[in-house]
Request: fold
Amino acid sequence: MSPLSKTGPADRQKAQEIRDEFLHAWNGYRTYAWGHDEVLPVSGGYREFFSRRYPVGLSIVEALDTHYVMGLDDEVDRSVRWIRSHLDFDLDADFLVFESIIRLVGGLLAGHLATGDKELLARCVDLANRLLPAFTKSPTGMPYRRVNLRTGAVSGATVPLAEIGTNILELGVLSQLTGDPRYYLAAKRSLAAAVERRSSIDLMGTSMNVESGRWVDGRDVAPNPPVDSFYEYLWGGWAMFGDRDCLRWFRMFDASLKKHLAERVGGLLWFKQVDHLTAATLSRLQSSLAVCIPSAGGDDQLAADYYLSWTAVQDKYIVIPEEIDYTRLTVRVPDNALRPEYANCAFDLYWRTGDPFYRTTAWRYFTNLKAYHRVPGGYTIVTDVTKRPMTKGDYCPAYVFAENFKWLYLTFADAPRFDYDSGYLSTEAKILRGLRRTVTGTPSPAK
Ligand code: DMJ
Reply:
């Protein structure tokens, strides 16, 4: 949602600390993994995200607009130089379409919007053109999971709902910037094809065969992955482009979510998993990735209540586990892959309400992040939040450079390069609207 800002004055000291910790994570990437996709901050290694043979500097692309809003202009320059001289998408490799769109297309777009650099937009157009066959070769218009960037060969006909419908923001902005409607139309057609397959009680399945247009998995697991951002992007289609179909669809699913999935257990709000045809209850599990979906649009009270549920989990486990059984708040999947969603939701709600509670709880998330995920080489995943001491792994996902520290920084900094009145961020925290280019120099929050 992009509300009129209700945020209070900057808390400069906290913003500075967040920025320093972002730089600590970034320095680990620069030292051990520069030019590769992701850093292994404990062993000092790296790993590639899309293709073992072809790094695309994913963390560099993910970090572009984070550097910019934090006023780290040397890092912006260094990153743009690397992209200009090294990034080439003419690769004989099968890339995941959804991840390419939210991370690379979104990252290059946000980088272009931040800097005005035309090369970033050109790279973005080139990549989007290589991804388009995933949509245009599909008989239903819903994209295949993978596309070979060189040949345009598609693969993966069974696709989770989030991957079918998380692209209208990035592709829509690309259409706006280029004047080429093909990107927006591909995204809209895909959304419409998915919505058409809803059940008579307005519920959706989890994954679809995009060739036959039939559900492969008929459980409605909203707002959990792998359907989460499908709903976020229906709201986004309305909020960014004024698309009334998207608004109508969002409202329809919002109503069915409240009617068939929402329930209270011990006073806390959760969403059960149901059969999409009958609404029969199937399970009561909850993924920590779901927390920010209700706050992405629609009903503020629902979003606030759901945030409270996850705050109870944070209070109980300190670091939020990947998945819980919400009937007893017990852990089902004990790791935390440096998940940013709680910080995302804290920002959304602070931005909309100005309630200092969201700063307080976001700060708790940050201090826990620092206490349990920080290592000398940067930030790393926790493998089991229930162990004492908590056990750490050796991996810093690239989204950390786009999301965790940016959500936190925007919550505390009152960042001069971000327009809190008109801003809009994607599911990967790419700032697709509201980057201010007129503010020059380094807006260090400490000054
Ligand atoms: C990010 O890549 C995006 O937020 C995506 O929508 C799902 N979650 C991961 C981070 O947890």
Summary: Confidence is low (pLDDT under 50) at residues 441-447. The longest strand covers residues 214-217. The domain at 12-433 is CATH 1.50.10.10 (Glycosyltransferase). DSSP finds 16 helices and 22 strands in the chain.
